[in-house]
Amino acid sequence: MTKSWSLPFKTDTSPDGEIFPPVPAVALMVYVSAANEDAVREMRAIMRMMTGKRRVERYMERER
């Protein structure tokens, strides 16, 4: 898996013109973390940069 992929965050829009919520990204995070431990730290850092919310980090710790 390369690092040149992007997640559907606030900048992307759906065909309806609706702004994607970051929820799909969180779901992807949980899915990827099950397969790759390194991805957990990487994704968590991305979520911190994008949202600045510690809540996501606590959620990920609970999922382990």
Intertermini distance: 22 Å
What is the H/E order?
HHH
Tell me the total number of β-strands: 0
Number of helices: 3
Average of per-residue pLDDT values: 62
Q: Unreliable runs, pLDDT <50, ≥5 residues?
A: none
| Helical residues, percent | 55-70%
The secondary structure category is mainly alpha
Query: What about the largest sheet?
Result: none
Identify the overall geometry.
globular
Per DSSP, what share of the residues sits in E-state strands of 2 or more residues? Answer: under 5%
Gyration radius, in Å = 12 Å
Gist?
The chain has 64 residues and is mainly alpha-helical. It has a domain at 23-63.
Question: Main attributes?
Answer:
about 60 residues; mainly alpha; about 0% strand; 3 helices; single chain
How is this structure best described in words?
With 64 residues, the chain is mainly alpha-helical. It has a domain at 23-63. 59% of the residues lie in helices and 0% in strands. It starts with 22 loop residues before the first helix and ends with a helix.
List the helices and strands and how they pair.
Blueprint: H1 23-35, H2 37-51, H3 54-63
Helix pairs in contact: 1-2, 2-3
